[in-house]
Design brief:
Chains A, B: Keywords: Hydrolase, Metal-binding, Pyrimidine biosynthesis, Zinc. The structure is a homodimer of 395-residue chains. Chain A has 18 helices and 14 strands. Chain A has 395 residues and is an alpha/beta fold. The radius of gyration of chain A is 21 Å and the shape is globular.
């Protein structure tokens, strides 16, 4: 495909983390910068968003930071949630409820029992046409042969069971990373959708092995799994769509160092075994998450063109997700449409600078703070320093 | 097993990296500190050791640093090597030749052709009773479905083919990490052995995901793979033995940070795409390698006891490897024998301090150098800050 310009109907990101405080101030405006006009915001804050009131207040804070972006809220699935709260949330525009692995398996190896305790919630969600967003992984359990590589596959039985029990409940399997997950969603009915992140369309396990910038959960898997994700996007399957799972982490957490964390053992030897994990490994891990909000639509265009799916860009970043969620109002979609221009990656320095992913984003208040200060609010984006094949035409 | 003391016949480490320069000064004496009296030293220096003369000079430099340790040398398999040089090396006590993936597959997807070009070398090695040490991984190749998770399995056909071609050539499959590799070695004849590292007896993929301290090549795999390694050690199979693959890296390379590396993207944006890898990922990776030399035998005892194989400790760390390599001279073995004492991991601070793995080892000349200086020669060991269950009784 050799088009020089593409018009994309109002892109929507159906899975994004916008944080709180200074980090939220830095990244929330990036949603629009990345070409997205509708952001479906995850509730895993501290504390998590478990009530309509919290959700309403949080969305207000986001709108104050980016008035032109449409923010849609979610609740964190927890025992505190009640059918009455679900009904209230629905009336107040909260669109979905997110289930995290932790919630799946409290006091349980399989998690099934725990999902059953949530059936009254799902019943009310189905009635209110709310979306159930599933982080589709079971917790690792070496004794049971479960690790980060098969945690998603092991979860799929839960997806099938909930779907059978609530065939009219709209469910989204979030950030699928495996062929088995893609096949499972395809097998389900029209009420089951699936988000695919751009970074999982690009990475395999080799790309995050020893490379914190690309480390995220679920982890990128085998080449064949990546192929399955690319194929279903190229196929334009209507129930697979963009959810970036863009997750900003301060650079100091992404690249822990002797300076910001102390040599791993130093902590341990200083405070005894408290710093030791069950396996006995010293805690000095890199935060899991890839940040793509600020470059999202140009990145998606570049990646899809790379595997011959540029003609499905609008389906992936806008049409499929909006239709599944019911945000396909014609006027809204046309108002948010954007135009992309192919970047001349020859030596034209102007277009180069425009399409080169920034090395790092720093909150204005922290510009003068040295990098060695772990509290510095700065985020390194995915593909930092690399050139994108497409850029947004700003009017 | 509730023994309070164990005597272990002269432990031998049949796969260790002792580096050069200041790093070698720091780690070479650690071999004896870890309880090991014979160190089979890898040749991947800069430049690699490809001649008898280089090997001889290198071993001399190591003996100067640790006169009581027996160092055995190897050559790096490369096109420069000749049958004549093999004969010369054998006469001068060089015991083996190490093949690295790079050497396996130059200008080749499968590597088979390249091994055949080395058949004259293998022929002479067989005649000289030299050992062929194989790093058993083929290079990752996403298009062919090969990644770090199946690179070892894909290599096994090469092991079988070389063994068929040279049934009398002693071959060691190094640092096995998978059940398939263990089964492959078992299927081979008595001339094929296999080293297993202590860290692969402990780690699975979850333990290095986002944790640079535990990241090494080959990467730790699934729980079932770890089980296979533990089982073959517990079985006391005579052709499986200790090769630590202890590989020291400066902390700054193990935990890259904004300070020592600059924000990843900064490098890229400063120097264009030179810092970008084929996948487009910014180069800011963590060095692959786990450092265990300084705590080796106590670590092995602690781990083996953890999975019920303490009674096979001598087979794993001494008897099996020495017999396979022919270093089982009774006098040498008895002279190097050591005694281990169980550590009271109650509150006895004395034994605690003795058995707590140091947070970091720093070369004396760098004690005053700040951690933020990337050139600082300091190494964080495996299990830093954690307590070992056994300690060496020093006489």
């Amino acid at each position: 495909m050799s088009a020089q310009e593409i018009t994309v109907p109002a892109p929507a990101d159906f899975h994004v983390h916008l944080r709180q405080g200074k980090m939220s101030e830095l990244v929330t405006p990036h949603v629009a910068e990345g070409g997205v006009s509708l952001a479906y915001v995850m509730p895993n804050l501290v504390p998590p968003i478990t009530s309509t009131q919290q959700a309403t207040e949080y969305l207000e804070s986001l709108r104050a930071l980016a008035p032109k972006t449409k923010f849609v809220g979610t609740l964190y699935l927890s025992p505190a949630l009640t059918p009455a709260e679900i009904a209230k949330a629905a009336k107040n525009g909260v669109r979905g409820v997110k289930s995290y692995p932790r919630g799946v398996t409290t006091n349980s190896d399989s998690g099934i029992e725990d999902y059953e305790t949530y059936y009254p919630i799902f019943e009310e969600m189905q009635k209110q046409d709310m979306i159930l967003n599933l982080h589709g992984e079971v917790p690792s359990n070496a004794d049971a042969g479960i690790c980060v590589l098969n945690a998603e596959e092991k979860f799929l039985t839960h997806l099938f069971k909930i779907h059978r029990q609530f065939p009219k409940l709209k469910i989204v399997l979030e950030h699928a990373t495996t062929r088995k997950a893609v096949e499972a969603v395809k097998q389900c009915g029209d009420t089951v959708g699936c988000t695919i992140t751009p970074h999982h369309l690009e990475l395999i396990v080799d790309d995050w092995a020893g490379k914190p910038l690309n480390f995220c959960k679920p982890v990128a898997k085998y080449p064949d799994d990546r192929q399955a994700l690319r194929d279903v996007v190229r196929e334009g399957h209507p129930r697979f769509f963009l959810g970036s799972d863009s997750a900003p982490h301060p650079l100091a957490n992404k690249y822990p160092s002797a300076v910001t964390h102390g040599a791993p053992g130093t902590k341990a030897s200083a405070s005894g075994s408290d710093d030791l994990e069950p396996t006995g490994v010293v805690s000095c891990g890199c935060a899991a998450g890839v940040y793509t909000s600020s470059i999202l639509v140009p990145l998606c265009a570049t990646l899809l063109e790379g595997f011959g799916a540029l003609d499905k860009l609008s389906n992936y970043v806008s049409i499929n997700g909006r239709k599944f969620y019911g945000y396909d109002d014609e006027e809204e979609v046309s108002q948010g449409s954007i135009k992309l221009r192919r970047v001349d990656n020859g030596s034209s320095s102007s277009s180069t600078s425009a399409a080169t992913v920034p090395a790092v984003y720093v909150h204005p208040e922290f510009r003068e703070v040295p990098d060695s200060d772990g509290s510095k609010v700065q985020v390194v984006p995915f593909w930092a320093g690399k050139r994108l094949g497409w850029e947004i035409v700003r009017s």
